[in-house]
Amino acid sequence: MKWQSFSSSLLTAELRYIQSIHETGDLQNPDALVRHFLPVFRRLRLAWLSQKKLATLRSLPFYYYLVARTKYYDRVFLDAIAENFQLVINVGCGTDTRSYRFEHVLKRYGVKVMECDQPGSISNKQVMTMRLGTFDHVTYVPVDLNADAWPDFECQLANSNTSKALVMMEGVSPYVNVETFTQFLGFLANKLHPESLVIYDFKLSGVKDDFGLVGQTQRPFRLTSVRNEVASYHRELGYMLEQIELSSELSTRLIVGLADSGAPLYSEDAFVRLITM
Ligand SMILES: C[S@@+](CC[C@H](N)C(=O)[O-])C[C@H]1O[C@@H](n2cnc3c(N)ncnc32)[C@H](O)[C@@H]1O
User: Fold this and answer.
1) Ligand 1 center–CA 171 separation, angstroms
2) CATH classification of the domain holding 123
3) How many A from CA of 117 to the centre of ligand 1?
């Protein structure tokens, strides 16, 4: 597994774990399963974090944003199941646990999940989840979004693509080159059933230009928050833009009291909700 991609996904897992055990109420991260993706010694260290270290974490704008982001994609995931989507495709899934946390709902509605990530990361995840149980509703598919073709993904999609799908890419686009990410969006619009849903978040242009500059990624994906421009970029690729929301708006919408708490808001990212035409 490549260290950089592993580290971003592991950092997310650690923060979610901390938020699941050290926070309560609306500030608590709903991902209580993520602990299984952390080594035992690491879990113990995080369980005994000092109040000083917790206070430092809580002062970072990203900290509560991650709680809101987790809640947001949880809602997107569960709404899609309730709305009869038969396939969920999680690209850049990392240590995301939704396929296992929501196993009962997925199985009740007969929904299949394609978990996709870079080859090393996805085979690692497949091995790690074997320890948690047998999940025959989940398929593991290698995808490198910095490549310009995705033969394994295309083949798996051709076998599973019987009705509209939800594609979600949580915290992924800032690590991928703009050209191939755009190409992948176009590919999805072309291959997915009409009225499929594609949801992802991105870093706003001009905010932190060097973020995601690792390995093969030299021109990390960025977009403006100007609605017309975002709509037109996606229209050309085959999508209708249903919603765009800033990370700060999403955080205050999903965490009651955050706006008045004095906690710093994360204002680097935005979310789009797209429908294939
Ligand atoms: C910040 S983590 C987010 C993981 C997960 N979506 C979550 O929110 O828990 C970023 C993820 O993007 C994946 N990623 C980075 N570059 C990628 C690429 N070129 N192709 C596919 N996935 C990539 C990483 O492997 C990692 O799992």
Assistant:
1) 7
2) 3.40.50.150
3) 6
